[in-house]
Amino acid sequence: MTVVAQRNSDRWSLASWFTEFSGPDYRDFRLAIERDLDTQSRQAAALTGDLQCLSQALTDYEDLTDRLGHLSAFLGCLSADDATNEAVKSDEAWVATLDAEQLKLKTRLQAVLTQITDTDFQDLLSKPLLAGAAHAIRRLREEGRHQMTTELESLAADLNVNGLHAWGRLYDTLSGKMAFPLQFPDGHTEIIPMARRRSLMSEPSRPLREAAFHAGQQPWHDHADTLAAGLNGIAGTRLCLYGRRGIPHFLTAPLFGGAMSRASLDAMLAAIHDTIELPRRALRTAARLQGTPALHFFDLEAPQVAAPHTKPLSWDEACTTVDRAFTAAYPKLGGYFRSLLEQHWIEAQPRAGKRPGAFCTGSRLRREERVFMTWHGTVHDMITLAHEAGHAWHSSVLRPARSFAADYPMPLAETASNFGEMILLDGLLSDPAITPEIKAHLLDQEMLRAHSYLINIPMRYEFEHAFYTERAAGEVSVSRLRELMTQAQFNLYGDTLLADGSDPLFWASKMHFFITGVSFYNFPYVFGYLLSQALFARFKAEGRAFLPHYEAFLAATGSDTCEEVVRQTLGADLASPAFWETSIRAIVPTLEAYEKLAPPQLG
Ligand SMILES: [Zn+2]
Fold it and tell me: What pLDDT digit, counting tens, does each position of 387-425 carry?
């Protein structure tokens, strides 16, 4: 048997960040950060409204943030690479304490920014040291206006470690240890860790999905009281802090985090409701292909057109395919993708001990990006590779910018990654070398994506909105959480869900509701998906002449609100439902092709 050497490395190198974990350069770097954070904190405590000192303090803070980010990214990469490394975990805990100190420093700087007059603030923005930083400094001031006193913010930061974030850790511990006995359709029984349930939900065998769904509900049911206490605790803490900070609405903070306006969010949601029959048509087709009158919750992530039973894709094949699709549509992106491989910036090797999932990270200090994933040989993995490469390309376009102008919000981040996915998918669907079987599978994957962004994630948003509204009046019981969840599901899914097909415990099993760093971890994804649809439609219409506009868009993402970035670089109005409707209607050609698919041959 001949072994063909792999051409493309699937191991990353972090050597340009630090020679090794805990090496001399690493230890010196740690010491310098501790020292400088301490110095900056003392200087900030003595800051007055002197504009020269203030501009220097802000610039020092920007530099410190880059260095802390460099360290966090390095440790994050090491611990994803080997989830069992306890020395790395211990340093991550140490960095978390530095992050808390840095947050206090930021709060102090924000307090000073709010104390100076508007005229002084304009003068401050015109200081040469802060050139290009206006948007970030305005945001610091804006956020600072809704803060308690420095002492109370400092107390809140400390208490959050033991309160708010403790609920999140409890969730991770509890859900991480969950397991359930599953009787497989062939009769044998296995104990299944909860983390495997999700992949069982995408199994082609419906009896297996059904069994895994019902057996996997039991642990969530058993722990429902504890999880409801957690959810109530997280939301209650946030609502209490919003009240103390004079923040008028529970959407204000997540919208501020996303640098987008309520008008844009409302326009996007209105368009989704007005066109809800489009993604529902995809679900009706999925039900027809599987031969049921409608879908159950356990059908929603399952392929209706299974990947052809050929051998798994090799890493080299995937790299070549992504490279070919990128290069054909967008040569600079193709070149960048090859440079990721050549410089060993992608980690994809399948091996034990790696953390599941995929992410893109990087160091502003080194102006370098890294991609983490695990290659299992599926088309889905290849789409993930294009998604993360889209993120990395976004960061690389922002390399020349100062860090205050390179911090883009999540809705715009997810636009760049979806754009990468779409270039790959579009390239594959129009590639004559791709078989009709794989194309049918890709259409199905595309419609799964449309369902996820246009029905499932909006459903999560509606649940969370209803929950926060009721939580403001007091604790919400388990039975009420189940009702709110079921209502949100039928509101969005309509008759595409079987009458007994809802998942009333989805509020417990979906980890996103328990993320303590950010609330409403849902609508930014919908935004990114739809804006990328709009960008891609223009790319198809205008061809390569559009790409400089795309890069101008990416380069502007850290310097203004979503509305302004889109208005200035693309000339579109995010507060107009018509804009979002056009983006949603971009799925119609794929939907129509999907509707023409015949049910798979039996036997
Ligand atoms: Zn992403």
Answer: 999 999 999 999 999 999 999 999 999 999 999 999 999
Provide, rounded to the nearest whole percent, the portion of the chain with pLDDT above 70: 98
CA of 389 relative to ligand 1 center, distance in Å: 10
Which amino acid, residue 108? R
Among candidate residues 31, 40, 29, 35, the one with its CA nearest the CA of residue 106: 40
- Using 70 as the pLDDT threshold, list the residues of the chain that sit under it: 1-4, 309-310, 600-603
Nearest CA-CA partner of 172 in 586, 520, 517: 517
**C-alpha of residue 185 to centroid of ligand 1, in Å:** 35
- Structural domains in the chain? 24-160 (1.20.140.70), 238-308+435-597 (1.10.1370.20), 310-424 (no CATH)
In angstroms, what is the span from residue 57 Cα to ligand 1's centroid? 33
152: CA distance to ligand 1 center in Å?
35
In the reported structure, the alpha carbon of residue 417 is separated from the centroid of ligand 1 by a whole-number distance in angstroms of 6
Q: Distance from the CA of 14 to the center of ligand 1, in angstroms? A: 21
Determine the Cα–Cα distance for residues 463 and 507; give it in Å rounded to an integer: 8
Rounded to the nearest angstrom, the distance between the alpha carbon of 423 and the centre of ligand 1 is 15
pLDDT of residue 3: 57
201 C-alpha to ligand 1 centroid (Å): 22
- Cα of 180 from ligand 1 centre, angstroms: 31
Own/partner pairs, 326-334, CB within 8 angstroms, 24+ separation: 326/386, 326/389, 326/420, 326/423, 326/424, 326/427, 328/427, 329/423, 329/426, 329/427, 329/539, 330/423, 330/544, 330/547, 332/547, 333/389, 333/393, 333/420, 333/423
Instruction: Give the Å distance between the CA of 550 and the centre of ligand 1.
Output: 18
Q: Where are the alpha helices (DSSP H) in 455-561?
A: 457-471, 478-493, 506-509, 523-542, 547-556
Ligand 1 centroid to residue 419 C-alpha, Å: 10
Q: H or E segment at 221?
A: helix 206-222
